[in-house]
């Protein structure tokens, strides 16, 4: 279970994954070598699985984002899953319970590109698409508190 120092380090890296060991040491009150060892242990234990950057999709010409609920036709779930994985414009996809099997996020350059991608699914799945107007909550971590302190 991560302790308070681990949580401080993870939160600091979530805000900026390029923070230096010196900066992380200052934030956590540890020495740089201690921070390096903590990060190595967090990685080894699988609590810290990667470092990333975020981009503005519009800077790369992706003017629209869409949320697509996907319900494969009987017997087509594996094929639909492979198709989603093979389409790079699907930037996220969750397999979910309920009426739909997948909820995915698409980044597209135009409505025409959105239609073309959805057309690849037409004979294998039903789709329901919503255009994203804004994202008031960006992808973020849940609170990194101990399970004992979580409130319902």
Describe this structure in words.
- With 152 residues, the chain is of the alpha+beta class.
- It has helices at residues 4-15, 21-28, 32-44, 77-86, 111-119, and strands at residues 64-72, 90-95, 102-108, 125-131.
- The chain has two domains: 4-53, Orthogonal Bundle (Arc Repressor Mutant, subunit A); 57-131, Lrp/AsnC effector binding domain/regulation of amino acid metabolism (RAM) domain (Alpha-Beta Plaits, 2-Layer Sandwich), CATH 3.30.70.
- A hairpin with a 6-residue loop joins strand 2 and strand 3.
What can be said about this structure in brief?
This protein has about 150 residues and is an alpha+beta fold.
User: What's the SSE pattern?
Assistant: HHHEHEEHE
Overall mean confidence score, pLDDT: 93
- CATH class of the largest domain, please? Alpha Beta
Strand arrangement, major sheet: 2-3-1-4
Proportion of strand residues: 15-25%
Would you identify the CATH architecture of the largest domain? 2-Layer Sandwich
CATH topology of the largest domain: Alpha-Beta Plaits
How many strand units?
4
> Distance between the terminal alpha carbons, to the nearest Å?
20 Å
How can the largest sheet be summarized?
4 strands, antiparallel
The CATH H-level superfamily of the largest domain is Lrp/AsnC effector binding domain/regulation of amino acid metabolism (RAM) domain
* Rg, Å, rounded: 20 Å
Put simply, the count of helices is 5
Q: What is the number of domains?
A: 2
Task: Give the overall shape, derived from the CA principal axes.
Answer: elongated
Class from helix and strand fractions:
alpha+beta
- Helical proportion, percent range: 25-40%
Low-confidence stretches: none
User: What is the oligomeric state here?
Assistant: single chain
